[in-house]
Specification:
Arc Repressor Mutant, subunit A; three-stranded antiparallel sheet; 10 helices; globular; MAGE_WH2; MAGE
């Protein structure tokens, strides 16, 4: 395990800029516990085994696996088979030559991190489903994005984007990310219905998100922030752990965000009692 953080950057980490922190590539962590059954070493071997003409860095592979995991989690909300053609179109794209390896790494992460098993249904039809591989634990409920509503996983992803970007993010950047997961602002979604309405109206009305217009933007753009209900129903630490699990990292890899989340946890706990109450 990593040593106790001292709320400052460590060697190999992105410098604290007070804004967003880039998702690291998993390297520079020689003392990190490999609790995902060799996922990190597998991605390293995959990077080394790729032909020179198709060479990708380990960071690119880690991000692609994380993107694939998020896509599978979102698509599974409808509880219908996830087609391989959709995975290739929305996520894999230029990585088709190593699709089997990426799928294997994503399956490992889904199993060891989220407690899901990726199962192929009717191999000739190239369709997959996720089934529960572990008994759900109450503490893990929010991090798995599976609390009984199909929109919770999407909301956790958006809250993670906002937090990692420094507490606010332009709406256009949110849609740029969601398009990679097959969620478009102008297309009806099989799970979420009207995603634009869900995010910019429903989540805002429910006070999970706040939307503010960005001055001097043409066309008009808005920025999204956490709403008061998000602060009540979840926490910065829970969202950071969700992001970390998706990317197969320790939350401490993002020192600025981790220290902020830790301070938030302490403030939620309240001041410790100064002493015992007097007895009569």
């Amino acid at each position: 395990m990593l040593q106790k953080p001292r709320c400052r950057s460590h060697p190999g980490a992105q410098p604290d800029s007070g804004t967003s922190e880039e998702v690291p590539n998993g390297s520079g962590r020689p003392d990190a516990k490999q609790d995902t059954a060799g996922t990190l070493s597998s991605s390293s071997r995959l990077a080394q085994a790729t032909p020179a003409s198709e060479l990708r860095t380990q960071k690119q592979l880690e991000l692609k696996v994380a993107e694939l995991v998020q896509f599978l989690l979102i698509k599974d909300q409808r509880k219908i088979p996830i087609k391989r053609t959709g995975i290739l179109k929305h996520v894999i794209r230029d990585y088709k030559d190593i699709f089997p390896d990426l799928l294997k790494l994503a399956a490992e992460r889904l199993h060891y991190v989220f407690g899901y098993k990726l199962v192929e249904l009717e191999p000739k039809r190239n369709a997959y489903i996720l089934i529960n591989a572990l008994e759900p634990v109450e503490e893990d409920g929010e991090m798995r994005g599976n609390q009984g509503t199909p929109t919770t996983g999407l909301l956790m992803i958006i809250l993670g984007l906002i937090f990692m970007n420094g507490h606010s993010i332009p709406e256009t950047e949110v849609w740029d990310f969601l398009r990679r997961l097959g969620v478009y602002p102008t297309k009806k979604h099989s799970v979420f219905g009207d995603p634009k309405k869900l995010i910019t109206e429903d989540f805002v009305r429910q006070r999970y998100l706040e939307s503010r217009r960005i001055p001097h933007t043409d066309p008009v753009d808005c920025e999204l922030q956490w709403g008061p209900r998000a602060n009540l129903e979840t926490s910065k630490m829970k969202v950071l752990k969700f992001v970390a699990k998706v990317h197969n990292q320790d939350p401490k890899v993002w020192p600025t965000r981790y220290c902020e989340a830790l301070a938030d946890e302490q403030s939620r706990a309240g001041p410790e009692p100064s002493g015992s109450a007097p007895t009569s």
